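In this section we walk through a basic example: taking a raw amino acid sequence and producing a predicted 3D structure, encoded as discrete structure tokens. The instruction is simple. Fold the sequence below.
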Amino acid sequence: MSLKNELLIYQAALEAFDTHNLSLALTHFGKISETSKIQWNMGIILATMGRHNEAIARFGESIVMDQYLVVGWFQRGVSYFVSPAHDHHRADVRWWECMLWLKRILIWGTSI
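The resulting token sequence is shown next.
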């Protein structure tokens, strides 16, 4: 797909989101979901719709694509926390994993 077509689809997704047509925004973003940022956008839309299990999967994809996308780690933890299908203990563990990961990056400069 050409860059022009991707940008047109992205614009259509943003317009759908701005008019609160979240399902249409998801459909548009799904056509160009090859980047971590688009996966994250889809996760935010799903979380806004209350579909936290699907949002967790999208945030997970965004993290796999870009391990330094800290907001993906954070939002996944938020969705774990508010999701009725996941217990709060697991959300707490995920949050601490994120904090330890950030500490390694900030203090030692490594994600290992």
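Looking at the output, two observations stand out. The helical segments are 3-18, 22-31, 36-48, 52-65, 70-82, 88-108. Residues 34 and 86 are 27 Å apart (CA to CA). In the next section we compare this with other chains.
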